[in-house]
Amino acid sequence: MQGLMMQQSLLVSALLTHAERHHSEQEIVSRRVEGDVHRYSYRHLAQRARRMANALSTLGVARGERVATLAWNGYRHMELYFSVSGSGSVLHTLNPRLHVDQLAYIIEHAEDRVVFFDLTFLPLIESVAPQVKSPKIFVAMTDRAHMPQTSGMNAMLMCYEDLLDLHDDVFEWPVLDENSASSLCYTSGTTGNPKGVPYSHRSTVLHTYAAALPDSLNCSARDVILPVVPMFHVNAWGLPYVACMVGAKLVFPGPALDGKSLYELIETEHVTLSAGVPTVWQGLLTHVDAMGGTFSSMRRTVIGGAPCPTAMTEAFQQRHQVEVLHAWGMTELSPIGTVCSFKAHQQSLPMAEQYTIQAKQGRALFGIDMRIVGSDGNELPWDGESAGDLQVRGHWVTQQYFGADVESPLCDGWFPTGDIATIDPHGFMQITDRSKDVIKSGGEWISSAAIENVAYLHPEVSMAVCIAARHPKWDERPLLLVVKKPGSDLASDELLSFFNGRVARWWTPDAVVFVDTVPLGATGKVLKNQLRDQFGDYYLPA
Ligand code: AMP
């Protein structure tokens, strides 16, 4: 028997039509770069997305062509998510924190036809535009009253709201091949040039289903979701799509990502779920603790992109009754691979054991399979001890980077993540390092993540980074770089003795260096390679 069930392409546009039909009055709130707060509903989102789809067609953008955005989280960006992908072109989100040369490289490599940008990024666009040949049209995401004066861009500059005004909202979303590309995001390129990861309509919709499930991000029509994670970084972890699928209220923070601005937004809009990297949450917690506040509506926060220190989990859960969902993913995974939510028997464990579990990156979502392999290529046991190269495969894992000049990254059908991890008998994966960040002391591995985790337990530590420094006897030894909290006079001996009994003695760093800041990359992650260049010879004789 065949053909019993309907065959419908899994398409990004279907998420929007569903939201328009079933949640038309649900709200979308955005802090704008123009300085005010904007509110409308999914009905308006859908109407304006159709008008923009008509505009793209007038601009001559063909199916499969790339349309780039350089924008914060906001409603116009959301409209482009659907108008570009829904009409069959490819939404290419650009990361504004990249260097101008890297941005120019990416725009040329992707052959972007049009670049939409938020006003904040005008100076960046003015530097990039003369360096690129492909886009001939730049669109400022604003209205006529706020249009900037600019010259020398060597390309056409248009106004977003003018474009919308010229078009009506009658547009039928085409039925596309579900395996065609819907969006494109480049890796941050800490080694070599960034690589483009194209997501398909099918992979995006399947990722959306999986992300919304109770043991994933647990999203529903009763939620108010604040994606702090940028829409330019792997589609804000898929939350704009999830919100459409479940009909949640969406709150977009725009450019203000400091603790005070986020806290005000969370409270005034009654946010229930937020998502972001640990460095952003550090700012939020510092602000809330300093003012003696707490969260009246927020119940869950997704923390990922870098290890979530236990001290942060404790602060959210114990002081503020906000459940932490520690998640792991990467650009090549759309991005979510694992989420740390308890199994039934773990809910009654003592608090300390629960925190040990929550320091792990969690269990694979259905749709992702994972394994760890040793240096001989053989699979390692799930004993929570053996650490090996983490490999994944599944419906939303890339098998081919964008462009003909790039080789397939797969090994025997598995994607090598570059992360080193353990997996315990319950299937909880824990990242111990990036393969290039790993510390190898006397032939044995030391987990820099575990050392950072201990340092963060110290009340006077604001940021902690552990790197491998070359050592005359042991090859490498851990070196701890620390940013102290304001006003602290913490001494290195005191901090090192804090490690006694908390990690194996030989894992304790040989030294601590106090620094004022640590370099952060385009996605808010610590640039350990820069710190290794600066401090890598610390233990070698001068
Ligand atoms: P990106 O592709 O820029 O999103 O970076 C992906 C990489 O970030 C992963 O391969 C990990 O090394 C790291 N990463 C993401 N989430 C976590 C996490 N929860 N804990 C530790 N590392 C993480």
Descriptive account of the structure:
By secondary structure, the protein is α/β, with parallel strands linked by helices. It has a domain at 437-535: ANL, C-terminal domain (GMP Synthetase, Chain A, domain 3). It is globular, with a radius of gyration of 24 Å. The termini are far apart. The relative contact order is 0.09. The structure holds adenosine monophosphate. Adenosine monophosphate is lined by residues 187-188, 234, 304-307, 326-331, 335, 361, 417-419, 431, 434, 523.
Rg result? 24 Å
Measured by DSSP, the beta-strand proportion falls in 15-25%
The CATH topology of the domain at 437-535 is given as: GMP Synthetase, Chain A, domain 3
CATH superfamily of the domain at 437-535: ANL, C-terminal domain
**Which stretches of 5+ consecutive residues score pLDDT under 50?**
none
Mean pLDDT across residues? 94
Shape: globular
Q: What is the CATH C-level name of the domain at 437-535?
A: Alpha Beta
| Structural class designation | alpha/beta
CATH architecture assignment name of the domain at 437-535: 2-Layer Sandwich
Annotation, overall tally of beta strands: 25
Helical segment count: 16
**Biggest sheet, open or closed, and with what strands and sense?**
9 strands, mixed
Provide the spatial order of strands within the biggest beta sheet: 2-1-11-10-12-13-14-15-16
The level of helicity is 25-40%
Query: Span between N and C termini?
Result: 77 Å
Hetero groups: adenosine monophosphate
GO molecular function: long-chain fatty acid-CoA ligase activity
Organism: Paraburkholderia sprentiae WSM5005
Protein name: Long-chain-fatty-acid--CoA ligase
EC number: 6.2.1.3
